[in-house]
Amino acid sequence: MQSDLFAPSLIPGLSYAPDIISREEEAELVARIGALPLSPFRFQGWTGKRLTLSFGWNYDFDNGRFAAADPIPEWLAPLRGKVAAFAGLDSADLVQLLLTRYDPGAGIGWHRDRPVFDHVVGVSLGSEARLRFRRRTQTGFERFAIPLAPRSVYHLSGEARHEWEHGIAAMETRRWSVTFRTLSAKGRASQSGRGQER
Ligand SMILES: O=C(O)CCC(=O)C(=O)O
Ligand SMILES: [Fe+2]
Questions:
Q1: 83: left (phi over 0), alpha (psi -120 to 50) or beta
Q2: Which one of 29, 177, 178, 180 would you pick to mutate in the ligand 1 pocket, going by the greatest count of ligand atoms within 8 A of its CB?
Q3: pTM of the model
Q4: Is the reported ipTM for this assembly greater than 0.95?
């Protein structure tokens, strides 16, 4: 059974596709992102090695605040449409966008995305990365990883999104990611409330 060959690398709620964009589109996105003021990721007083910028909604890891941000730039609309079609989502529901630049030596540690978000759809630019997953078992951790090729897209939902942690090992060459997210019920509730969420 051929599907068994791939079974170890896939879990429910994780999907992946290479070549969602062309090399020309990739180069244009990298140039556009290069013109934006990404800044070092901050977490409760610590400064990370990666640079980020959010649109639509911003979860501030420094103070736990969740609030509206500048609208998603118009030049990202075609990419948003493509990733929505890939993930089987309505592109209007992909209301949050996170741009990240990882310089050599930067990665992202084990985490689950914040509960104010639901679906996560990410596009990789520039270099390959390893997206790692782990889940606690009675005896330790169950783990696996998939390579993310430049110009590829992945979608995290369901079990992959909620039961597994993910992270990206530090890379040797610069990589960018463009991550779109939907809001969860919790995120939508705080949207109509005080714009603050812990
Ligand atoms: O760089 C990526 O593709 C993943 C980043 C990530 O997991 C996150 O920002 O929550
Ligand atoms: Fe994440």
A1: alpha
A2: 177
A3: 0.91
A4: yes
